[in-house]
Structure formats: C-alpha cells, structure tokens
C-alpha cells in the first residue's frame, strides 16, 4: 500500500485527534529509522495504520478475532489490547498488505513482544514518544532514543512504566506485555 492511500484510509476512519497522532507516530518512526538504520517506508506505513481499529465497536472486534482466526485469548480483553491485532488482520485480509514486518508492528504496537524486529521496536517506541504525548517522564524516553540511542533500554522503560500504570489502576496485564518486559529487562 502506498503512503497516500494509507493516509486517506486513516483520515476517513479516525477522529481528527487520533488521525493526527497517527501521522506524528509515522513521522517519529521515520526519524528513528534514520537513527537506527531501519526501513523508513515500512515504519512510516505501520505508523500511519497502527491505530486504524482503535475505535471499532467491541462486538465487531470480537467478530474479527474469530473471522481472522486470531488467538481466542484476546476475547477476554478490551479494545486497548484488541485494536492492534485486529488492525493487522484487517490490513492483511481487507487491504492487501503483505509485508509481515509492517503487519507485526501494527499487531504488537500496544503490548510489545519478545524478540521484536527493528520495525516493531520503532513503532512500539514511536507510539509512546511522539511529540503529542505528555505522560510524566516521557522526556526521559526521548533522551534515551535521540541522545543516547538506546532502543532496547527505552523498550524496557516503556514496558515497565506501562505495567506499573496498569497495576496501579487494577487492570489486567496481557501475557505478551509481561513477555516484553522480561525479555527487554535482560536485553537492555
Ligand atoms: O492506541 P494508543 O493510545 O496510541 O496507544 P497503545 O495502543 O499503546 O495503547 C495504550 C493503552 O493500552 C494504555 O492505556 C495502556 C494499555 N495497555 C498496554 N498494555 C496493556 C494495556 N492494557 C491492558 N489491560 N493490559 C495490557 O497488558
Ligand atoms: Fe494503539
Ligand atoms: Fe503504545
Ligand atoms: Fe497509537
């Protein structure tokens, strides 16, 4: 899929704020690709499309999990966990995206995963640090990336902060989130 078509898809589907977030994730991801010798075209496309399913009706998402034979464990979770895997399946089956790296980056953008490809890593981090993000301490992660160039360290820090936030708010933690946390703790 060409960039222009991806932008049009997302612009027509998502609210303006979420569309603008998607563009900033893509822009941040392209900058990171330059820094870490990643593939700019891939991260740009994944960045534009990563939140495509974010506001889909939960019932529709559950239907898509079944239709596209995604892990049935997903059915126990809400749209926060579902929107990445569902968007990846929709892009593959309904919009003809074949690049597995792009699809994986969309799939895992919320939870991360162990042994991520460079494209996946970049999208996972760019989603967290794009210039519109205001989480406390997000500048520490930006420094880790743009000054220290420590990608795996940044992934660990993001996972850790996400898990701490989830525990504090009595949310369920998806197994892949923990897998990511542990893997990049050892890798960092
Ligand atoms: O879609 P975005 O808001 O751009 O960002 P995202 O896809 O990274 O989603 C972030 C949300 O997902 C954030 O509120 C935390 C939540 N999240 C991440 N990992 C888990 C999770 N929620 C649950 N319940 N369990 C997780 O493991
Ligand atoms: Fe998301
Ligand atoms: Fe994220
Ligand atoms: Fe996002």
TrEMBL record:
EC number from the UniProt entry: 3.6.1.41
Keyword flag Nucleotide-binding: yes
Protein's UniProt keywords contain Transcription: no
InterPro entries: Diverse_Catalytic_Enzymes, HD/PDEase_dom, HD_domain, YqeK
CDD domains tied to this protein: HDc
GO molecular function terms attached to this record: bis(5'-nucleosyl)-tetraphosphatase (symmetrical) activity; metal ion binding; nucleotide binding
UniProt keywords, alphabetically: Hydrolase, Iron, Metal-binding, Nucleotide-binding
Catalytic activity: P(1),P(4)-bis(5'-adenosyl) tetraphosphate + H2O = 2 ADP + 2 H(+)
Root EC class: hydrolase
Superkingdom as given in the UniProt entry: Bacteria
HD domain sequence ranges: 18-132
Alphabetical list of NCBIfam families matching this protein: bis(5'-nucleosyl)-tetraphosphatase (symmetrical) YqeK
PANTHER family (UniProt xref): BIS(5'-NUCLEOSYL)-TETRAPHOSPHATASE, SYMMETRICAL (PTHR35795:SF1), SLR1885 PROTEIN (PTHR35795)
Stated name of the protein: bis(5'-nucleosyl)-tetraphosphatase (symmetrical)
Organism: Macrococcus lamae
